[in-house]
Amino acid sequence: MIRRALGAVVPVGAALVAFLFGAIMIVALGANPIDGLVAMLDGAFGTRERLATTAVRATPLLLVGVGICVAFRAKVINIGGEGQIVIGALASTAVALAVPGTPKVLLLPMVIVAGMVGGGFWGAIPGALKAYASVNEILSTIMLNLVAVQVMNYLLRGPMIDPLEVEGSRIPQTERLTDNAALPTLLSGTRLHLGVVIGITAAVAAYVLLWRTPLGFRLRAVGHNPNAARASGISVERSIVTAMAISGSLSGLAGVVLVFGSESLRMVTDGSAAGFTSAAGFNGIVAALFGALHPLWTIPSAFLFGGLLTGANNLQRVLQIPSPLAVALNGIVVVFVVSSGRVRTWIEQRIRQPVDDRGASAPVAGGGG
Amino acid sequence: MSDFFTLSVLVATFASGVRLATPYLLAGLGETVGQRSGVLNLGVDGVMLLSAFGAYWTSLETGSLLLGVGAGLLVGLVMGVVYGIITVIFQAEQGISGIGIYLFGLGFSDLLFEEMVGTPTPIKSLPKYSIPGLSRLPILGEALFEHNLMTYAAFLLVPLVALLLMKTTFGMNVRAVGENPEAADSLGVSVGLTRFAAIMVGNGMAGLAGAALTLGLGIFQPNLTQGLGFIAVALVYFGAWRARGVMLGALLYGIVAAVVLQLKARELIPLEASDLAAMAPAVLTIVALVVVAGRIEAPAALTNPFSRH
Question: B225 in contact with A at a CB cutoff of 8 Å?
Answer without folding.
Answer: no
